[in-house]
């Protein structure tokens, strides 16, 4: 946010208090406010075309994906397969239909969704192209890399197995 040099922090806080409603609601008022918001959302959604609904859902998925890949925390539930499955659900495609649209075998798609296989760069690019650039390939790629980073950083068995291949390691500590 751009702030002119003449504003002090105290003045900014006072300004925020004037603009932001800070009134506390009782539980009953809060429940009523939620009810009214839900009704307003339902009314808005009822007036949306199927294309507008698709755009809204794509943006929601994109923002969830972006938020997760930019977050330092790792969640083993939020995998490439999870987000790919979410994508298929929001575009209302069956797996065989979608596999044909991006020209991969249905078995490969199933392996990707179930996290039995990592996607190739070509699959990642095809996902971007299929979404008409709504979800960039770099998001899918960064999601895969986040999974790999977690695996490498936490897999003690892999470190133990690979240790036997390292001879004469450096004797310094940094």
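^ structure tokens above, recovered residues below v
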């Amino acid at each position: 946010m751009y702030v002119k040099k003449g504003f002090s922090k105290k003045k900014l806080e006072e300004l925020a208090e004037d603009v932001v409603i800070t009134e506390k609601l009782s539980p009953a008022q809060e429940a009523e406010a939620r009810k009214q918001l839900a009704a307003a959302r339902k009314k808005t959604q009822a007036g949306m075309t199927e294309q507008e609904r698709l755009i809204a859902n794509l943006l929601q998925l994109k923002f969830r994906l972006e938020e997760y890949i930019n977050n330092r925390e790792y969640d083993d539930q939020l995998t490439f397969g999870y987000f790919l499955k979410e994508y298929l659900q929001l575009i209302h495609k069956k797996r065989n239909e979608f596999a044909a649209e991006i020209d991969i075998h249905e078995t490969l798609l199933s392996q990707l969704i179930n996290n039995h296989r990592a996607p190739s760069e070509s699959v990642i690019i095809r996902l971007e192209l299929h979404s008409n650039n709504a979800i960039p390939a770099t998001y899918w790629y960064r999601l895969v890399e986040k999974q790999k980073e977690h695996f490498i950083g936490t897999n003690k068995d892999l470190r133990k197995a690979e240790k036997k291949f390292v001879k004469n390691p450096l004797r310094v500590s940094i």
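The chain has nine helices and no strands.
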